[in-house]
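Morning run. Coffee first, then this:
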Amino acid sequence: MAQTLTDTTLAAVERALSEEREEGAQRTSVMTHLVWAPPDWLKAAERTLAGLSERHPSRTVLLTPAPRRKDGIDAVVDVRRFRVKGSSRSIASEVVKLTLKGKRAKAPGSIAMPLLITDLPVFCRWRGEPAWDSAELDQLVTVVERLVVDSSEWKGLPGSYERLGELFDRVAVSDIAWTRTEGWRARVAALWPGLRRAELLEVTGPLPDALLLAGWLRSRLRRQVELVHRTGRTVRRVVVDGTEVEPPSGPAPSPSDLLSQQLDVFGRDPIYESAVNA
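And here it is:
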């Protein structure tokens, strides 16, 4: 059963994690997964994490800022167990939910550091649009190997892509909006060799998806391609110089599926970076 700790310390959080583990449940974490989840994004973050289940055994640390509350840290510590098929053993995935109150909300990096598992990669899923000049973003970028964002959660496009590009030399970046366009990129690429003469791209769908598709095409062709965008909840239609692109087959992946894909990626993605910078 999860333990709830009020106005606690990181040492107490570690003790609670140890108590929550039971004999026969091995901690088989493959990473530390930080999640910056402001209050408006917390429920969505929890739903996505629940969908990951045993696919990515990890220590997950949710960081929720509450700067208007009295200084302190509240925590909920849970160890979720999954039975190993064909064995009596189970694996344990640790979840720590921290509410950073008052001045603590400005120090997520120093608070997260003691909870990182030594010698394992550290990912950070940042929910919502980052405050680009904030100390919180600067600190977390410093302690993680990979920053995972979803630019469809942002309101500042296309300008926010310029700010994101400033981070590329500091941390590897994944964008869930980019992952959603993978099937469409494959379909557009299939138009080669005629594609090399493309001048006009029409996209009906979310603005981030359209911008990334256009940036990808421009960066691959190394020249300008005009974008005509029409709003849609999902990408429904892509047209290149009047030629309809066949939609990808199969169901759209869930938010958990999309995040899971990013947690399998290590290192920088130069094609994505070029699309953002195009």
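The chain has a mean pLDDT of 91. Good start to the day.
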